[in-house]
Amino acid sequence: MRALLISIVLAAPIMAQACPTAHDHSDQLEALFEGVRMAPNERQAEDFSQQMWQLWTEAPDAKAQALLDRGMEKRAGFDFLGAIEALDQLVAYCPAYAEGWNQRAFVHFLRQDFPAARDDLAQARSLNPRHVGVLTGQGLTFLALGQEAEAQDALAAAVELNPWVKERHLLRAPPPKPGEDL
């Protein structure tokens, strides 16, 4: 009994440091995806997009939120090393939270460290394959790396979810099939 009690006491700090599961916003996001697809203009579509970002940037707990906020504030102030430090802590603490990876990828992209951005975006996409920001980030990163086919795939996936996404102009139309009119 005493050994069990000691084990529990010693494990408590470790268990207290575990990141909780991120909130499940899938129903809300599905409604927002439907809304953005039905939006009659870019202005209304932007409202839906902003609501999506509010959900994606809702971290699993206060500690994760503080790290995310600090990373985004440092990035906005062009303190990219400070942003990376905060976001490194976030992905270490909450490795299943896609937005931590996505925000760190954005900082890597701004620093023109495109391979690091690509890797973080791959992780973010594996965690949240319908995150439009991740998909457009992949498209831009693949373009920067000269990987046109991969860029087009990511951009097409983003436009399928949100036809008003700002990066839609980078999506190339597929070549006409033989016998089709231009």
List the SSEs and their pairings.
Elements: H1 2-16, H2 26-38, H3 42-56, H4 62-76, H5 80-93, H6 98-110, H7 114-127, H8 132-144, H9 148-161
Helix pairs in contact: 2-3, 4-5, 4-6, 5-6, 6-7, 6-8, 7-8, 8-9
Overview of the structural elements:
- Helices cover 69% and strands 0% of the residues.
- The protein has helices at residues 2-16, 26-38, 42-56, 62-76, 80-93, 98-110, 114-127, 132-144, 148-161.
- Helix 4 (62-76) packs parallel to helix 6, helix 5 packs antiparallel against helix 6 (98-110) and helix 7 (114-127) packs antiparallel against helix 8 (132-144).
- The radius of gyration is 20 Å and the shape is globular.
- Mean pLDDT is 90; it is low at 3-15.
